[in-house]
Amino acid sequence: MQRTAPTSLPRRRLLAGSASALAAAGLAGLHGPALAQAPAAPAAPAVKPLPGYASWKNADAVIVHSSTTIETKRSAFGTSVVTPTNQLYVRNNLPTPAATIVADRDAWQIEVAGVKQPKALSLRELKALGLETVTMVLQCSGNGRGFFPSKPSGTAWTVGAAGCVTWSGVPVRDVVQALGGLVDGLPYMTGTGGEVLPAGIDPKSVIVERSVPVSAMQDALLAWEMNGEPIPLAHGGPLRLIVPGYTGVNNIKYIKQLAFTAKESDAHIMSHGYRITPPGGKGDPSQPSVQEMSVKSWINSPLPEDGAAAGTVQIHGVAFGGMNAIKGVEVSIDGGKTWRPARLVGPDMGKYAWRQFALQATLPKGTHVLASRATDAQGNVQPETRGENQSGYNNTSWADHAVTVTIA
Ligand SMILES: Nc1nc2c(c(=O)[nH]1)N[C@H]1C(S)=C(S)[C@@H](COP(=O)(O)O)O[C@H]1N2
Ligand SMILES: [Mo]
Questions:
Q1: Which ligand sits nearest to residue 72's alpha carbon?
Q2: How remote is the CA of residue 251 from the centroid of ligand 1, in Å?
Q3: Residues 32-58: what's their mean pLDDT?
Q4: pLDDT tens digits, 329-362
Q5: 276 pLDDT exceeds 70?
Q6: What is the C-alpha separation between 198 and 173, in angstroms, rounded?
Q7: Which residues contact 271 (CB under 8 A, 6 or more apart)?
Q8: How far is the CA of 41 from the centre of ligand 1 (A)?
Q9: What residues does ligand 1 touch, defined as CB less than 6 Å away?
Q10: Whose CA is nearest to atom 12 of ligand 1?
């Protein structure tokens, strides 16, 4: 019973999504003016509209997979480090809360538990307790899933379920200190999302509630601002838990409770979801949870569709180390046979941010496989191959992220 509810809900949504995509494609085929004029032209792929809560996104910069999954196009990642909010990816496990929750932001309340003086605090009160800013990579655990030949269920993201974002808020440790300190010996920090849960199902089967090691508190924020603006509803406003270095799902949007706990949450999304499950297996609490990110990079230009001309190009992309700073990036123009050091470009915004890298190279006519391979400050090198797992998490393979460019 607890098993069927969580799977049947997303599956229903998936079916609805593909049905509407088919309908849209059918409509384009029947009534498209281009088709009437040029009967031989193939039907354009159906482009799904942006959902209402994200209607302000730059439609040209994103791929709308569904009303709850929106990916940044690889070609849209610029070179100036921070990802503009209007092209950052979106991933919601539940319907987005009503916009009324951002109507009076300062009135938003969060319960803090597992401290000596547990208390509900308003956002207005939080703003008085401390202030810090961090720039960090926000990346979905399933970014790169689209490269798994096993075609795991879930969105087939390639590189665009990630961005580099500047967040401002109060350090969690300042909130804890203001509430008398931690209750001793609680090993987890557990955040709970503020969505209104669908009626008639076990709340634990759908609630977005995640636990991370209490050590993650040191750099965590309760944030109300991103990229210089109040956090939009789509990205978790009015208040979001930011756990730098941890995959997207651990960064709880519209957070309504922050608890220091003796055990990990028993919500399905923690106990069975987001686990590194062997291929063919089922998620369970004994398997590693998807938490800390590790070293990864990819090239954003040139891309196959760019139509690059023979001659000099600036090969560029992004690299990040998850919990560690980036030490260096190498680029290959021969599919990984030989490597050259790339330059790190632009400001270093701290160890949790990504670095832009560039390599000037001469590409003659022909087909070239361009790859990048990053090394973090601890000496960890981005691996050639992905770690196979049932749900397609944590893909850092440089080979999967390589691009094949043909110059005519
Ligand atoms: N409350 C809540 N927080 C959440 C989610 C959610 O569905 N509800 N999705 C998580 C997942 S899986 C990811 S990848 C990130 C996505 O953040 P974004 O939509 O701001 O890009 O938020 C995480 N935090
Ligand atoms: Mo995610």
A1: 1
A2: 7
A3: 70
A4: 999 999 999 999 999 999 999 999 999 999 999 9
A5: yes
A6: 33
A7: 264, 265, 284, 285
A8: 39
A9: 88-94, 138, 140, 193, 195, 208, 235-236, 248-249, 251-254
A10: 249
Least confident of 6-15, 57-66, 132-141, 368-377: 6-15
CA of 104 to the centre of ligand 2 (A): 27
Contact between residue 114 and residue 191 where contact means Cβ atoms under 8 Å apart: no
| The dihedral formed by the CA atoms of 60, 66, 71 and 76, expressed in degrees to the nearest 10 | -10
According to DSSP, residue 153 is labeled S
| Residue bearing the CA closest to ligand 1, atom 5 | 92
Closest residue to atom 19 of ligand 1, CA basis: 90
Number of H helices, E strands in the chain: 6, 21
Tens digits of residue pLDDT in 169-202:
999 999 999 999 999 999 999 999 999 999 999 9
Are 157 and 145 spatial neighbours (Cβ–Cβ below 8 Å)? yes
Residue written as tokens 């109507």? 103
Identify the residue whose C-alpha is closest to ligand 1 atom 9: 92
